[in-house]
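Quick one: sequence plus S-adenosylmethionine SMILES, need structure tokens.
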Amino acid sequence: MKPALTLLDRTLHLARYPQRKNETLQAWDAADEYLINHSHDMVLDPQRPILIFNDSFGALSCWFAEKGPVTSVSDSYIAQQGCRQNLAANALPDVTQFDCLAELPANPQLVLIKLPKNNRLLTWQLQQLCHLVPDDCIIIGAGKAKEIHTSTLKLCEKYLGETKTSLAVKKARLVFIKADKTLAKPMPAPKTWDVPEHGLTLTNHANVFSGESLDIGGRFLLEHIPQNPSLNNIIDLGCGNGVISLKAAQLNPQAKITSVDESYMAVASCQENAKLNLDNPEQIHAIVNNCLDGLEADWADLVLCNPPFHQQNAITDHIAWQMFCDAQQVLRPRGQLIVIGNRQLGYDEKMKRIFGNVKKIAQNSKFIIYLSGK
Ligand SMILES: C[S@@+](CC[C@H](N)C(=O)[O-])C[C@H]1O[C@@H](n2cnc3c(N)ncnc32)[C@H](O)[C@@H]1O
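Reply:
Sure thing.
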């Protein structure tokens, strides 16, 4: 791993979050470097906000922290923690951190957007900006050249204004957007759809996993959630819109469900879905967290988990590993972890290593559901 970002005679020490021994992935990318190189000699007003969207682990926030009042906007709790950690490691002042549903500071002078892969989130952010930015605001998007499609540029044109692109440097590209206030539209409502076979209505903010239809893995897991009056505390780890939590709550009305996700929009959707679908919405307590960090040990009866297989843009199994280790900690003796995964992901090996036992409880052509007991 490259330990530090050195650019323009300045060095920043940047790590991903959570920090891992033998990390092979960098905490910034070529698009960050391109944005920094392009913007470094801009004359900035020390009073007017600089908005940074979707900063992966705080590289951009660190770079700009001393140049003006920075507000970093991200849907990711992990990205926010990474940003905090890197600001502290470089002895830089704190920046304001907002989630994507928060009201943004008025009158920004500069907006830097790491273009998200999710077009619904991009559209949401472009629409927010169209309402917000003054005429003189400079807006620059950035991303991997191969991920900036014609459709990405069309969204920028449609929801914010005239859009031009730069040449590619180190396979990254910049996107320059001139805001046109006449394009401002009311913010879109969350997407809502029904899962009639389970009697559920699901509402989904823009960045929620599988926010336009039910995930096929989630659909299979729904059919295998235990119903047992002795279950008092159930955790839905990586809850997304809360579909698994809702079903667990319906089947086990005596149980308290703790739903955890690192996406603020997921947790907000899960909370809204509890109100939409349950007579007692208090049955679900949804929280933003990195896996089960900081939760007490030995209290949960059951952990249900449909793990993610990427962090930011990197495909990785370390989050699944952390989720299973954390589940082992918070489960009471004889508590159970139920995991769904694609056949080739090999979650059973991990569960066997952590719990000393694993069995298959269901499978179809794509997925297997495993159970380990503590
Ligand atoms: C495969 S989705 C499952 C969503 C939902 N449970 C379902 O079955 O449709 C995995 C979820 O894990 C969340 N996630 C990713 N990394 C996480 C982390 N470190 N801590 C908590 N949640 C995380 C993602 O935001 C995503 O919502």
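The longest helix spans residues 119-132. The domain at 4-183 is CATH 3.40.50.150 (Rossmann fold).
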